[in-house]
## 1
Amino acid sequence: MDNLPWNPASPNISCRGQGGSCLPPGGNGTNSTGPGPYPDFYIAIPIIYSVICAVGLTGNTAVIYVILKAPKMKTVTNMFILNLAIADELFTLVLPINIADYLLLQWPFGELMCKLIISIDQYNTFSSIYFLTVMSIDRYLVVLATARSKKMSYRTYRAAKIVSICVWLFVTIIILPFTIFGKIHDDQGRLQCVYVFPSPEILWWKASRIYTLLMGFTIPVSTICILYTMMLLRLRNMRLNTNAKALDKAKKKVTLMVMVILAVCLFCWTPYHLSTIVALTTDIQQTTLIIGISYFITSLSYANSCLNPFLYAFLDDSFRRSFRKLLECRTAP
């Protein structure tokens, strides 16, 4: 995704991006990567992407290492966090290819790599929100069991692994259409990795945007909002009607961490999905201001892949302790 999903201007070609197509900065609807007449963006964007890549790789590698190596980190919630970190790690690993694509103004890596990068872009769009949905369901079930003073025998680390595999399979099915439409297009001698839709192209383009909006935002976010509303009502009734504590201290901290991760995810991704609505309802002229907003929204969505590790380190005491212990073991003579 190089900028906002504005309506494509040329027939049968849409620029590559997370979840859909867009009108590129050049303004001609064919070049998905070039900066056109905006040299400031050409310099700034690779720098911003490189920072996101470096921070994301470092942070997510640390999260994956700690969860896999520290025995005390083998919890249900951490299994979902591990998968979130893996999804973010995959995206940051291929971000240098997106940077090269942007700088070279064409795609030199072949169609197989084009489809692979498009697929990973889409995994980044969909996987985080669906793992957060699963984490929200898990939090609700924990609250429900606490309210009823029941143990959750089915809530095991192994069960979390199975659920995680199911989420990956589900997201793979969701992104399959984008992988199919991702192709190499020869634009006057310059190869571009883009979505090439069948005729009528504009209808397919709109369908792809609506599909991403519904499956990547509206449905999962609505589910999460309903779950947390029910959770808050349950906690309120517990305080009013019983003498039992709503949750013990540890459970409260985990619930808070999940809610903060969710809030940051929505902060980073809501502008992108709102831009989809704008793209579907408004004919926007590609001015310098609009292109600048476009790149800002793109960078904000990318930044979500490097923010989560800082949230774990700030909110999770056990993560910090495990990380320090592993560092001490590695540095000990």
Note: Residues 30 and 187 are 7 Å apart (CA to CA).
## 2
Amino acid sequence: MIVTLTPNPSLDRAYELPSLDRGAVLRATRDRVDPGGKGVNVSRAVAAAGHRTVAVVPLGGPEGALLARLLGEHGIEAAGVPVAGSTRVNITLVEPDSTLTKVNAAGPELSAAEAEALLEAVRARAAGADWIACCGSLPRGLGPEWYAQLVARAHRAGLRVALDTSGSALGATLAEEPDVVKPNAEELAEAVGRPIATVGEAVKAAGELRERGARAVLASLGADGQLLVDATGTWFGHAGPVAVRSNVGAGDASLAGFLAAGGRGPAALAAAVAHGTAAVQLPGSVMPTPADLVPDAVTVTDAVPTDRPLAEPVR
């Protein structure tokens, strides 16, 4: 069972448009609403794989009520923490060529009491959990050290924590030794303060995050594959080229696959690559089911191609 925490969840509304004309009245040809936020996406992928998951989320206003209902429809247990502000709504405009224009709301500002209630909700629901996945940016009102408090409390209770965040929140939490952190190439580069243009440079950056406290680093490198750097060594996983429909939530699907497969070692990395590869071939933020996975297309090796240039280097 995997508990996820999304401190700043959302309702994600997508509108498909025949064209995007600034200043015009636009009529959508299709629209949909999904529960959103990185931890929520992890829960969606875990539930799609047939595993139990509990999503801890702050919920406010009618938007929060709708989010809770949608989580239930996805087979996810919602552990909602009432907050005064309304759950944010994010808007995606989809053009016929699949170009996406996103408008993300800031979300509510949480009080000190609401922040403590979130920590307590995680503690209350995490008993017996295999993993706690803490994912996404922190809302207003929560300082960058907030995730560090959660990791410290979880470790005192003997629980394992996966952390998927970036910037100051990631930096402030490394000293508490999260069991795995999951940056992408851009977040790796930000964390070490320099460009990343090759697989080898990504390996070096991941090693530096381990030196700063992370017990393992699962790094997404886009079309180039994924890295796992932990105490046993370095592993590189990749799959063959695929037709990408949407990369929204692909990293979240990868983390879900990794944790559901045990959260350590090359087998878990292979599961992460299979889930991420399946996710990019699905529309919007749809999470893959076991039927979407092609594990035989995944290769995992400890012969890491350190000289390989990244298809999308971070400058």
Note: The CA atoms of residues 20 and 173 lie 41 Å apart.
